[in-house]
Design goal:
transferase; two-stranded antiparallel sheet; quercetin 7-O-glucosyltransferase activity; UDP_glucos_trans; 7 strands; glycosyltransferase; about 40% helix; quercetin 3-O-glucosyltransferase activity
Length: about 190
């Protein structure tokens, strides 16, 4: 097998970029080639704020997400997510094909939360993919159990102020305020996804 080459696709927000960069450093230390893909704006911000801290050997594939001067809260999030999906998918496919033509094929696509389309594109070009989980393990546990047997209890009981949820493997009981907002029936904070 030739040299391993990871295409690390990261949502252009600091909470996604920082853990992804740390992960990229570890991969590079293991001798793995890493191409870091994010928006043009995020790449520009990285150069301005952390250029000397970027790992040596890291290459970039920046793409326009339609907001090359940055996303503002007045911008429409649904339109933004549609744009990042279509433009990011094209970049991922083009980057993978170009790397293969150069004799350094991408051997794995790794993507952060909110970029599930990256797995679909990787599958189209026959590259294995995996999500890089950047949230606490407890949140992963909550998501898992929500979709595997606990959704009905959460939906039925979470409006009771005394309600607590005990999930297998967690030493604490969780209240409504401990749960990700999209799991709650009122969905009052669902736009934060």
């Amino acid at each position: 097998m030739g040299r391993r080459h990871v295409l690390l696709v990261t949502f252009p927000a600091q909470g996604h970029i920082n853990p992804s960069l740390q992960f990229a450093k570890r991969l590079i230390d293991m001798g793995i080639e890493v191409t870091f893909a994010t928006s043009i704006y995020a790449r520009r911000r990285m150069e301005e704020t952390a250029a000397r801290d970027l790992p040596k050997g890291l290459s970039f594939a920046a793409f326009s997400d339609g907001h090359d001067d940055g996303f503002t809260m007045s911008d429409d999030i649904k339109t933004y997510m549609t744009e990042i999906r279509s433009r990011g998918a094209k970049m991922l496919k083009d980057t993978a094909l170009s790397a293969a033509e150069q004799g350094r094929p991408v051997t794995c696509v790794i993507y952060t939360l909110l970029l599930l389309w990256a797995a679909e594109v990787a599958r189209e070009v026959n590259i294995p993919s995996v999500v890089l989980w950047i949230q606490p393990a407890t949140v992963l546990d909550i998501y898992y159990y929500y979709f595997n047997g606990f959704a009905d209890e959460i939906i039925a009981s979470s409006n009771d102020p005394s309600w607590k949820l005990q999930l297998p493997g967690l030493p604490i009981r969780l209240s409504k305020r401990d749960l990700p907002s999209f799991t709650l029936p009122d969905g009052s904070e669902s736009s934060s996804l």
